[in-house]
Amino acid sequence: MSNQLHLFEQPLTTRAVAALVKAQGVDALPSAQRRADDARYQEVTCRSALNRTRGMAFRWTLNPYRGCTHACQYCFARRYQSQLEMGAGDQFSSYIFVKANVVAALARELSPRRWTPELVAVGTATDPYQPIEGHYKLTRACLELLDAANTPIGVVTKGPMVVRDADILARMSARGLATVYVSVPTIDPVWERLEPGTAPPLQRLRAVRHLIDAGVRAGVLMSPLVPGFSTQPSRIEATLAAMAELDVPLMGGNVLYLQDGSRDHFLQFLQAEAPHLLEKYARLYVGKYPDKAYASQVKSVLAALRARYAVTRRTPDKDVRHKTDWIADDL
Asked: Which residues contact 44 (CB under 8 A, 6 or more apart)?
């Protein structure tokens, strides 16, 4: 009992969360607040704000939150919930962990004595502009620190709330220090089944236009293209046509891959929503990546249509001092 009380006396770390959930289940989280979106939010402390990666186009990531109410069925980050002794299904989107001390931790790590500016990828695991950011404003506070430290960033989001921070992002873009990728895989109504907690795709496209008008280097990421849902040429074309109407660039796109952990959840989603696709997926995804010939065909369609609608990637007006394009554009 004394060990349990000890957890209540100190801010929870993710390690403490995992121990508590393993012993007593998610209902034992001491201060998880339920909000209007019906998710529960638990504040935690982090040992570091920046996380080092290996084998990626960047060495550092920043994620102020863990878990995401966007609830994208295909999200690869669902698998990380297992580290907290939680499931990759609904618990990923209904229990959100807020790194309450992330700004203070980042300030320490960006100290000139400790930090040499290099690319930081923001929003690699969970969306930095999911709705709770409107309450905590952790992402904005982190951007202010990164701006002051002349640190280049690449931001990925599905949240139109990113326009709130256009002032900071424009300052950074002017110095070649920022690129914002807004994820819009499709504008087809099928998006509601795949991304039930996100803002409508056209709203996201308008956010890109707003950012560009404000001086932010921004564009659209059509990833992931989900076989059987958003890979049809007509749906790809409709999305590119909407982008062309708003004059926003496509900065990349790729076909869904199914990582261990999140793969099980997605296949359960297919069983419930599109069981006729299960056999096709079994052939298409022998491993985590789709069949190479199929992926190449989809990307060829995307590349051809991008050229037709002239929504190609813009190059900066001046040399980008630091590389911020960490998502390969091989279309």
From this structure: 11, 12, 13, 14, 17, 66, 97, 98, 99, 100
State residue 9's pLDDT score. 43
User: pTM, whole model, 2 decimals?
Assistant: 0.85
Q: 51 by DSSP, 3-state: which?
A: strand
Between 306 and 330, the more confident residue is 306
Name the percent of the chain lying above pLDDT 90: 69
251 alpha carbon, distance to own chain's centre? 15
Write out the DSSP string of 117-158: ---EEESSSS-TTSTTHHHH-HHHHHHHHHHHTT--EEEEES
Residue 67 structural domain = 2-309
Q: Return all residues near 191 (Cβ < 8 A) that are at least 6 apart.
A: 185, 198, 200, 201, 230
149: domain CATH number is: 3.80.30.30
